[in-house]
Design goal:
Elements: H1 3-19, E1 22-27, H2 33-45, E2 49-53, H3 55-63, E3 80-85, H4 90-98, E4 107-113, E5 116-119, H5 124-129, H6 133-171
Antiparallel strand pairs: 1-3, 1-4, 2-3, 4-5
Helix pairs in contact: 1-3
């Protein structure tokens, strides 16, 4: 590969890392063609960008950025695919869903999610349980609405009780 091509790939990877707030490093090495196609289709449906890269080019792209990604260097061995997503837990759920019980492929290597590093397969469960920004906003809105709903419900039930008493008195 020519140096110009490598530089283009490095700058493309670096721009993609900047564009997305979260990315996962996975190993999809032993997936057959059918499983790989299924994984790519599912990634497309969930708006996850899946890119297979050379480790050295990925490392150079990460080094060119302002953020220190040196914690990811030890996992840049073997086959590496990057899953870029705006939703923090979407790739983790996809990896967990597609992981073969025998081989464990696609295998989770590491992730950079919400400005934190998660390294090793033991962190996959924690990443699956991370709530996305929209889920957190929904929880906050539900918590804020709960007292208002209770007050409105109490007023409505109280109003019908008062209405019933007044109606009974007017009939007498």
């Amino acid at each position: 590969m020519r140096k110009e091509d490598k530089n283009t790939i490095i700058s493309t990877i670096a721009a993609t890392v900047k564009e997305y707030g979260n990315f996962y490093l996975t190993n999809i090495e032993s997936l057959n063609a059918d499983k790989t196609s299924q994984l790519r289709r599912e990634c497309f449906k969930q708006d996850i960008k899946l890119v297979v890269v050379k480790n050295t080019l990925l490392q150079k792209a990460l080094e060119s950025l302002d953020t220190d990604f040196s914690e990811l260097t030890p996992v840049l061995k073997g086959n590496t695919a990057i899953m870029f997503s705006d939703v923090a837990n979407a790739p983790a759920k996809l990896i967990e869903k597609f992981a073969d019980k025998k081989t464990g492929i696609p295998a989770f290597k590491a992730a950079y999610v919400q400005e934190s590093f998660y390294i090793g397969a033991n962190n996959l469960k924690a990443l699956v349980n991370i709530k996305s920004k929209n889920e957190l906003i929904g929880d906050v809105i539900a918590a804020l609405q709960a007292p208002a709903k209770n007050v409105i419900s109490a007023l409505q039930s109280g109003g019908s009780t008062i209405h019933g008493v007044l109606e009974t008195l007017s009939k007498r």
